[in-house]
């Protein structure tokens, strides 16, 4: 590992954050250098600090410590991410015999200089009790590869000598802060502290010294690991097919098994979404003879347990011919074992705790790779990032010795530690949280708006369209407003059954499955019946009817495989109830699509799948999402009504009872209404047309 310090960059940070002062500006700079290397820090892990002074309201200079705050990541932290605290007061706390976690947090909050700042790190006192101006802390892979073995302490001592102090594992908080301070004072010449099965602290009089000491210590560990590497993993498992196909097969089944029943009829399940990975490194691990032994050991460092659970679910010998039964048994066994672990720890510790859910977050399968689960795609990605590094470190330890994790009692303390649980957040879930929707024709006026509304309601959306350029544009816009994890784009042709099957397989790989299927892709053609060409009629039927059929068929198969109900919400048309002259192909195709949806409602009700229809009228769209359908048929429809094309939208607005302009968002709101289970409804048609008397459902 090399130092990334550059004087020019350091000067630019000092200039950029001039208002915060040079010390804090350089603290931001080196924190980002550490935070941007995933071999050092991931997803909020690690923390850094700098000591200095601040002026209070009386104009007095007060010794201060500025330490990473909760909710900030080191890779992108800015000065507001370092709340300032009264350093002299915090140092006096070391004289206490004990300090509870709750009181420690209270003392930190009440001795901040700005009450609106983020909560200081739970390791603030550790930073404060060390005398150095700059302190850096990471969970470096190479350091954990040294410490996570039965002879870790002896190995660290042999490798680093007097360069570091060695701290036995102690749960973060007041006690750890005191132990670290005592270890340092026993040898004040050390450059850092190695915390067994936890990580590395380095320190110095300036930002560069502390950072480069950190890098130098890690480099020493890396060099030893490379030099002592004596063995690799032994290949054992030969997959019967490629990992991608196997993932598409098992993910929906697994997603259904991992849905937690709530007992509430209108929200019967809490679902999770998938992050699947199958890199060469991951496949080498899961296909190895040593796989089960290494996988069924604890995490690299205890704070990972809140993202990954203490252990993954391991399918040691997958039987892909009977995978549904095998996965069901494996999930049942995992949940039983987790509950036994919970009861065992609660009893041995004599504490009261509310059990968390008992579902695995990491599922490892030979031939498939790593299937990671979370309440959101972001949560699943975090779990995957952490476990990918776990695999790397465990393989590294195996090459140089024997891996050893913390005992389950220590992992339990962190998993059920209120200060760690707070990191997961307590925000109220949106109505479609944890759910996945598929929208076809997603780049159009209606489709893009439906995607937006579903995302705003908490769903993850797979947007599909035949136009790759417009789809990419739509996905970019959705990401700008809602974040990159809210959507994925898949180019697809609904008239091609292989393309539709590929779309649903990709959805399984991207999110594990789906809960809401919205057939929307459509075309139109305007001609009088005696002038309508057979090929044009067939083209409209192929997209609007055959396309709907193929999407609904594949959706039904997926929803049945998951076994947790769901929705098919068909985007229909006012023309079913009130057709227009010279619009025969479109009206007939939409009427057939409505009838198909009603049959699906009859067939899928026993599976808990609701099938409903949203019936809009004249959605023209605007800007980048102007309706392609109306762009194609609008001139002919205007002619049929005896008006100019520019008058067409106003014509349709004036003909409805409410004189309303119907937008894609209105259609999206109707889709969300059905998808949210607001009423126990299936087989229904909901008009979104401003009120067309001739189209009243009957």
Structure report:
- 45% of the residues lie in helices and 14% in strands.
- With 698 residues, it is an alpha/beta fold.
- The protein has a seven-stranded mixed sheet, sandwiched between helices. Strands 16-15-14-17-18-19-20 form a seven-stranded parallel sheet, with helices on both faces. A four-stranded mixed sheet has the order 10-13-12-11, sandwiched between helices.
- The mean pLDDT is 94.
Ranges where pLDDT stays below 50 over 5 or more residues in a row are none
**What's the helical proportion of residues?**
40-55%
* CATH level-3 fold name of the largest domain: Rossmann fold
Taking the sheet with the most strands, its summary is: 7 strands, mixed
Radius of gyration: 30 Å
Structural class: alpha/beta
Number of alpha- plus pi-helical segments: 25
Report the β-strand fraction as a percent range.
Answer: 5-15%
Q: How does CATH name the architecture of the largest domain?
A: 3-Layer(aba) Sandwich
Overall domain count: 3
User: Got a strand count?
Assistant: 20
Lay out the secondary structure:
Blueprint: H1 7-16, H2 22-35, E1 47-55, E2 61-67, E3 84-86, H3 87-92, H4 101-110, H5 124-129, E4 134-138, H6 141-147, H7 152-160, E5 164-167, H8 174-186, E6 192-195, E7 199-204, H9 207-228, H10 243-257, E8 260-261, E9 269-270, E10 273-277, H11 280-286, H12 291-295, H13 305-308, E11 313-314, H14 323-349, E12 362-365, E13 369-374, H15 377-400, H16 408-415, H17 418-421, E14 436-440, H18 445-456, E15 460-465, H19 468-482, E16 487-491, H20 497-511, E17 516-518, H21 534-562, E18 566-571, H22 584-604, E19 609-616, H23 628-641, H24 648-655, H25 664-675, E20 685-688
Parallel strand pairs: 5-6, 11-12, 14-15, 14-17, 15-16, 17-18, 18-19, 19-20
Antiparallel strand pairs: 1-2, 1-4, 2-3, 4-7, 6-7, 8-9, 10-13, 12-13
